[in-house]
Amino acid sequence: MEKKKKALAEITGPYRLLQVFWIAVQYPDYEWDIVLRYIDGKTETVKKMEKQCIDSGLFSNIFLCMETNRELSFWGKVKKSIYLVLVFLFFQRDRCFKRDIEKVVGCFDYDLILTEPSFALFSCELMYFGKNHDVCLLEDGTWEYAQNIFPYGIVMRFIGRFFFLLGIYNFVGYKNFSLNKRCIKYASNPSELLEKNYKEVRMLFSENSFSTEYNSVLKKTYDISDVDYDLIVFTTDGLGNTDESFKGKVIAWLEEHYSDKKILIKPHPLDSYQYSSSKCNLVAKYKTIPGEVILSIISDTPIIFMYPSTLLMFVKKGDYDYMILDYSDDLINSVYRHSYDEFISTLSIPDNNIIKI
User: Fold this and answer.
1) How far apart are CA 352 and CA 354, in angstroms?
2) Which CATH architecture has domain 231-356?
């Protein structure tokens, strides 16, 4: 009997999991495993995603990996940097990267790999093996369609540029990372991608591929029974500042304009703000359910975005009533302001769909 081919997916959030579902049902002859990596620093969020993976019925093995740079001390980051330099100088990437991956998944014997772009070392290690595996990159976010660099300090940018040029690691998000050329890229708007150095680019969520199997997976995985809302607000994790006062300003604006409405607050996966109001009916839920799934069920409800996201591309393709909030410059980091303007321009969002608060 011929041995079944194996596939591995690695994700950090709900939207990437949705993409994995869509791709996995197109490869029914593969045995699928999945790695759930650090999401918002909360074990409960990872556990919710793990349950969704179990409910989908698609995966033979589910691995949890809490790798992150967020909590590393300064010396922890220095130690990691030295490790990567030594791995590069002594030509040990094959051995060391495989060892790092096998610490998470056991035997690294996969024929197909789905991973995220290059912000985490684990993802870059998977991309590296695109030289002898089929490696596909999932769609990550608006940064793939807008010119921006993430708001790191000078020292971290220098270190990030160094590893980017070595082709090892791209945590700062520089464009046209050299490992891209080993990978197949999935994108919902291929023609708008800023990076062009992929081995191949494929259409994500093409209309003719919403099969019965895919819809069945969604029905088993996501429970959206509460659909009676007058407005949906999709939040953001932030505007590049540690100060979250803008979210209080958004709530005050909602209280002024929608005090008599029932409002669904759909939190961004990294948003931990506690949304509440004494003046309007706010319900915050569905944090680990992709917006695309929610909108496929609650399709005729007005939408407000706190910040542009890839979900806007989905909304633009349909007949949705949507608005995007805009902010004064004292509330939004200059880098995020630049990304905001770039993405709005890329998608040709009309001025009357933007509201300044």
Assistant:
1) 5
2) 3-Layer(aba) Sandwich (3.40)
